[in-house]
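User: Please predict structures.

Assistant: First:
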Amino acid sequence: MSTVTTTAAVAAQLERTLAVFVRELPEPPAVFEGGSTVRGWSNQHSDLDLYAILPQVREPADGEFTKIPCGAAEGHFYRRALVDGAVEGDLQVWHRVQVESLLAAMHISAVHESRVVGIALTNYEVDFLGRLWHGRAVSGGDEVAHWQRRLHASDARQVMADRSLRLADNAVVDAVGQLETDDVKSATLAALRAHGHAVDAALAVCGEFSASGKWRARRVEEARPAQFTPDEYWAVETLRDYHAQPVAWIENVLVICQNIAASVEL
């Protein structure tokens, strides 16, 4: 598959596809591209991750769309594959009201009050925000830039960091309990999970957030969080010193997670 991001053919298909949602399509509609093709990480198997933000969205007659509920945002958004010859993509269609409500949740005061804001986010919402942060406008550049400014000025980094720290805490508790019952294999997996979430918390403060660990190593290389070097991160991710003393390795990783958590300011 071609790694070329957007083409005239893709733009034309986008316009035809988005027209099923509104009686009158904005000119131009706000559409941005995110993911590996924008970050320079793509390969021949990568597809396009496209997001449209429309002023109004009606139920599409096109049965190829999947209706997906939101968590922190209101309502639901729509998703479908977008294929044009050799170019393949994934298109999500969001209502402006949903984006407004999602950004409204990106305030650290809400985290301090309830500490549930980040957990309420779905993986789709996390990825939407992460891809908008680094996104590139396909059309409607002024509006896309408006949403990016709103996101960058929000407390999204702290909210995402808190979300990852809570997930890391849960995994640490799992690992401790599993070690107490000599379930070393399960404790190993829990420690790795805790470390991944702790690393994600440090990355979030740098404006790097994703619901997936797929590009975590690339994010660490680019963001260079203060809490660890890329080599220190990779040593844990690859279990470099694990086999000599597995239990000691697990205990050390849990300490690393706690140290990262203590250094992340919310």
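Second:
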Amino acid sequence: MAGHLVRPGQARRARVVAVVGLVLVTLYAAVAAVQALVLNPLAAAPGRSLARIIDDVEANHDSLGTWVTLGVLVGGVLLALVLALITWLSAAPRPCLVAAWFLGMLAAGSPAYFMASFGPGTALADTYGTSGADSSTWGLPLHLLSGAALLALVGVLVRDARRTGPVGLARPLPPA
């Protein structure tokens, strides 16, 4: 790469960052799915089993929208997998940019969780007369993690811009 110094071990570090990022995005999606489809319904209808809640929702001619919820969340995991593969196949990926990709995905987890949980929340609201908002507190850690990832993303990008110049343009290498 012209104007960019490739450091030894850079590709290995970037790949480690990609694997860690993929694992974190996958865990986020799994927790979001359990929150939207299990924990929140149980909290919205205390004392009822999940099977009973599903029966009540279906008796109200509605559904929790399990496939839509899972589709939104699995879509994020597939995107993370693509980013990991791009990193793995790149000749000289920069670990800080790989970290930025995955931090961006984690930051986008909060809006993705909102979209994924909208259907189940609406079905619960229609069935039990609740607000449709999270009844379980397990949604809060997801939002906090997304906020922390957004702050970390800004930090990574600022640090990288100070190192390499604005908008990722590499500063010229000193004469050898």
